[in-house]
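Inputs:
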Amino acid sequence: MAADSLSFIFLNTVLANNFVLAMFLGLCPFLGVSGKLETALPMGLATTFVMLVSSLCAYAINLVLVALDIEFLRLIAYIALIASAVQLVEMALKKYSPVLFRALGIYLPLITTNCAILGLALFQTFKGYDFTQSLVYALGAGVGFTLAIVLMAGLREKLALSRLPSVTQGAALSLMLGGLLSLTFMGFAGLGGGHG
Amino acid sequence: MSRRRDDRLTWETFSEGLWRENPVFVMLLGMCPVLAVTNSAVNALAMGLATTFVLVASGLLVSLLARYIPKQVRIATYIVIIATFVTLIDYTIQAISLDLYNALGAFIQLIVVNCIILGRAEAYASRNRPLKAVVNAAGMGAGFTFALLCLGGVRELLGAGSLFGFDLFGPNFQPWVVMVLPPGGFLVLGGWLLLFDWLKQRGRETEPLPRGETLHGR
């Protein structure tokens, strides 16, 4: 898989193998933060940013792990790395852009437990992507996540105004919506050339 | 000393994870593996057992170490403890069954970021005796496994016409393939939640919610 072209990686992760809708990564924010468009978009962008940073760091740290022949520590190293990356992003934002920091609020620290980030780091290692491929992969995953969460927020804003049977109000309906979105995204399957 | 407030070990300690506070159906935690690996009942069972192991082992260790861990670094410490056990189970599954390992893929390693485990470590194990923490973690694990089986069973039944790999409907069955594909995961879990919401609503039909006050958009 290491020979994938950059455009293939990008399109594949954004549409055909969307992290949320096809690989089920990062569902907690997808269901939890998708109530309103104005919070969904910053959440998506923040996640994209953390993905890029942690993908870079994961690539670097994997080189060290392989060089030292201690790959069994990979999981622990990645988790520690993501937690510190989130912490760093938080501190940098607080210093240089307090407005954005306040807008993101509680969502920033929550990104640490977003499995899309760890999943991204693990997948790029399994697939043996090189430096640029990893970056494009992270960018695609972030854009895909943002796309999914924004679409979902738009749908849920519409639904909040419509009359529904009282049983269906709540998480069940969000999941059904997610299912329909996922079905739609399956239509892109040919684009990426199958699962990978 | 609120730590010693209620030390009795009851059936409730175990059973709350099974039903009343079921991590998947009630608390909606740890959804990623729930949807991702439940395309067959066997995968669901394996994932449930692996998660239960990590829950119990990390619950025990966190409960034993809680008083020695400085408050400021507790989350990081819990994560490292959890990651250690996940690495253990990851290599164990790889040693036992390579097929299973390949089917579950990265989702075994992703148990680390399953919010159920960190949530239990923070909210329960660090405040209770080791025995109680272990029993409660086992209950949560059982509830999680039960939920995974509910999903995996339905999806395999509809999507492949079999259960645990045994063909049930004979050769004329036309499988509903979408059920084992990603959308099926969302739809089946949504269906189960609808069913439970409906049952709950029937249970309290005598006192309906006032208009405009709904569960929507928690």
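Chain A has ten helices and no strands. Flag for discussion at group meeting.
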